[in-house]
Specification:
Helix content is 52%, strand content 12%. By secondary structure, it is an alpha/beta fold. Helix 4 packs parallel to helix 5. It is globular, with a radius of gyration of 16 Å.
């Protein structure tokens, strides 16, 4: 799924509809950055430069999150490359938890750019707002807690282009990896409302 493709919105809707725990790699990173953990400090430098965080850091963070869960789960934004996918396979094999499905969202790049420039996040909860599609009731403030929203330092056109180049270089081989494994499904659309009915029908048929 491309950066800004609506992963967070889809994950939230899946969580609400199916009771599945959703883990966002971006939310996990932002929380660790905000808490200034060792991993968070290392990640902050990469994020500020519009670069992807190293595999070792993100894999360790995801491993810690998965260790807290006993039921079904969904990973949002992870893995992003073959090395991370192989690390995830190793984690799941060790716990006898095979991967059921991988979902790829296809959204036009111009729409993605508009979304990330207008995106604001409530770091503690991971709630995502967009000034056009899903604005907060009060500008700059989380609807639920009243706490300040954050605008990521790499949510700008220049960083987006760098991240998109990285995406094509790293993620396209990843899609081939999962396609060969028989677990990849792709949905296309320029809005979350256009994509979610496809996503919902797939999960409803697959897991209910």
């Amino acid at each position: 799924m491309e950066c800004g493709a609506g992963k967070g919105t889809q994950s939230s809707r899946v969580r609400e509809s199916f009771g599945i725990t959703a883990i966002s790699s971006g939310d996990v990173l932002r929380r660790n950055i905000a808490e200034q953990t060792v991993a968070g400090q290392k990640a902050a430098a990469a994020v500020a430069s519009g670069l992807l965080v190293s595999d070792d850091i993100i894999v360790d963070l995801i491993r810690n999150e998965l260790g807290k869960i006993t039921g079904s789960w969904l990973l949002d934004g992870f893995p992003r490359n073959i090395a991370q996918a192989q690390a995830l396979d190793t984690m799941l094999e060790a716990n006898n938890q095979p991967l059921n499905a991988v979902v790829n969202l296809r959204v036009s790049e111009s729409v993605i750019l508009q979304r990330i420039v207008e995106r604001y996040v409530h770091v503690p909860s991971g709630r995502v707002y967009n000034l056009t599609y899903n604005p907060p009731k009060t500008p700059g403030v989380d609807d639920v807690t009243g706490e300040r929203l954050e605008h990521r330092p790499d949510d700008n056109p220049e960083s987006f282009r760098r991240r998109l180049e990285q995406y094509h270089k790293l993620t396209e081989p990843l899609l081939e990896y999962y396609d060969k494994s028989g677990v990849l499904t792709s949905f296309a659309g320029d809005t979350s409302d256009a994509i979610f009915p496809q996503f919902y029908a797939f999960l409803d048929q697959r897991f209910n």
